[in-house]
Amino acid sequence: MKVGIDLGTNTAGQPVRLDLEELLSTRLLVQGNSGSGKSHLLRRLLEQSAGHVQQAIIDPEGDFVSLAERYGHVVIDAERTPGEIERLAGRVRRHRASVVFNLEGLDADAQMLSAAAFLNGLFDAEREHWFPMLVVVDEAQLFAPAGGGENSDEARRAALSAMTNLMCRGRKRGLAGIIATQRLAKLAKNVAAEASNFLMGRTFLDIDMARAADLLGMEKRQAESFRDLNTGSFVALGPALARRPVPVKVGEVETASRNGRPALMPPPEMGADLQGLIFEDGADPLPPVRSVPAPRPMAEIMDSITAAPAPEEELADPETLRAIEAEREALIGDIIGHFVAEAAAASASPMRSVQSLYQDFLVHCRVRRVGSRVPDLADFTRRLAIARAGVEPGLPEGEHSGEIWQQVRGQAAELPEEMQGVFLMLARAAMEDAASPTDEELARAYGSRSPSRGRWLLTYMEERGYLTCETDFRGRRVVRFPAFGWKTAPGEPRPSEMARG
Q1: CA distance between the termini of the chain
Q2: Rounded Cα–Cα distance for residues 379 and 445 (Å)
Q3: Considering only Cβ atoms within 10 Å of each terminal Cβ, which end of the chain, N or C, has fewer?
């Protein structure tokens, strides 16, 4: 289900929307000098998407704590041991709680180490807890610096490694990184390069303007336009935003930062007494002792995470959902069918490995906007094997044929994914009383051009009791399926030279 986030309006007053499902696969980079409106933009995005997806915010200044009261985010103070932080992050993923990880009050090294522990806890969650999550990192240049700076090597390596995992490998674990930085030149290039969506705000330094223009595909002479952007104005580009650079004025937000935007405040009129207040000891009362609240106990935080409501999903018409799913399946089937046809056309070339085809498959899915629900490698292997065998379309109609075929597919599912298409091809031939496929046909369905591979497949399945093979007096092969009482018509294991011609 596609969900569009309303970011604001373009110069013509038309709404600019962000495709949330596409964002989960492609990540986002926000850049702008201090005061350009980055935090306002992030707040708008978080507020608009709060009811659709789980969120985690790495908050170095405590700006986003105000989201907790309005949207139910759990605030986690970072003054804890790394082990505690990692356990909290794992529980956040397990219970799908939206959280604000508040780093306010820690020094730079402690912020980097705490953020690294939290991100590692999210990243190392068990596979069954890989739910989609937006991970927003404000002031990302603090956690993924381009240079050494004044931080310790230990803190810098830990934070940079965690940020690289988030942006480079997080997608497969459901983590969609959204990073915001004041300066692109201070952000590690291998972290920034993984983003496919960009929102570029006001910036003045030539090096930052040049990098922003390069990321947006703009000419160098257009780079100076970033100096003219107003507060809250950005240039958007990316598969989740727009195919061409589009200016956007960010809309209003419902919550406010605790720090707020600086405003003018005239000094008080104290007259001659002002000198006495400054130079005379004891002229003013001692300042009150500042009480620092202790961090909330870990047990209380965990209870809050457990009790936090999961993001509410927008209910859609069942018929619409079926249509969307059918469209997605059709796109996936079309892409896989293209691979099969391409392999058949290149009959003289070696068959490509499934892993190599899967990488191309992911690229095709992104280009054709299949969405975030893309088959994993095992599912792709199964679909490819079935497509190579050509067994699913046009099954015979009958009162019980569909039910029996489901039982056949259940048996096939017990085999390795790459063999399931071969088994289904043999079963369909037996069900239709057609001739047993040749060794070459079996090998092609498996993804090989070697006939001996086809004979090995039959031996493998026969040894495990899925079928039996017999040879008649003319040397033709008959394949039987004891579980269903089916058998193929006799077929030549190797096509004759005349048939080849």
Answers
A1: 51
A2: 16
A3: C
Task: List Cβ neighbours of 13 (8 Å cut-off, separation of 6 or more).
Answer: none
Could you tell me if 245 and 19 are in contact, meaning their C-beta atoms sit under 8 angstroms apart? no
Tokens of 85: 């932080």
Q: How confident is the model at residue 394 (pLDDT cuts 50, 70, 90)?
A: low
Q: Name the residue with tokens 């056949």.
A: 408
Q: Which two tokens stand for residue 302?
A: 């965990």
DSSP per-residue letters across 449-496: S-HHHHHHHHHHHHHTTS-EEEE-TTS-EEEEETTTTEEPBPB-SS--
pTM recorded for the entire structure: 0.57
The tokens of 404 are what? Answer: 């029996």
Q: How many other CB atoms are there within 10 angstroms of residue 221's CB atom?
A: 8
For residue 276, what pLDDT is reported?
Answer: 67
- CA 354-356-360 angle, to 5 degrees, is 110
Instruction: Name 5's Cβ contacts closer than 8 Å, sequence gap at least 6.
Output: 17, 18, 19, 20, 45, 48, 49
| Per-residue pLDDT, 249 | 93
Q: How many CB atoms within 10 Å of residue 306?
A: 12
Closest CA relative to residue 175, chosen from 55, 48, 51, 39: 55
Q: Give the 3-state secondary structure of residue 138.
A: coil
pLDDT at 497 over 50: no
Q: Which residues pair with 56 in a beta bridge?
A: 99, 135
**pLDDT at position 98, please?**
93
Rg (CA), the chain: 30
Q: In what order do the strands lie in the sheet with 477-481?
A: 468-471, 477-481, 486-487
SS3 letters for 93-120?
HHHCCCEEEECCCCCHHHHHHHHHHHHH
- Domains, in order of start, for the chain: 4-255+297-307 (3.40.50.300), 318-500 (no CATH)
* Lookup: tokens for 107: 């020094």
* Buried/exposed code over 320-345 (b: 16+ C-beta within 10 A; e: otherwise): eeeeeeeebeebbeebbeebbeebee
Per-residue H/E/C for 255-315: CCCCCCCCCCCCCCCCCCHHHHHHHCCCCCCCCCCCCCCCCCCHHHHHHHHHHCCCCCCCC
Q: Are 177 and 137 in contact (CB under 8 A)?
A: yes
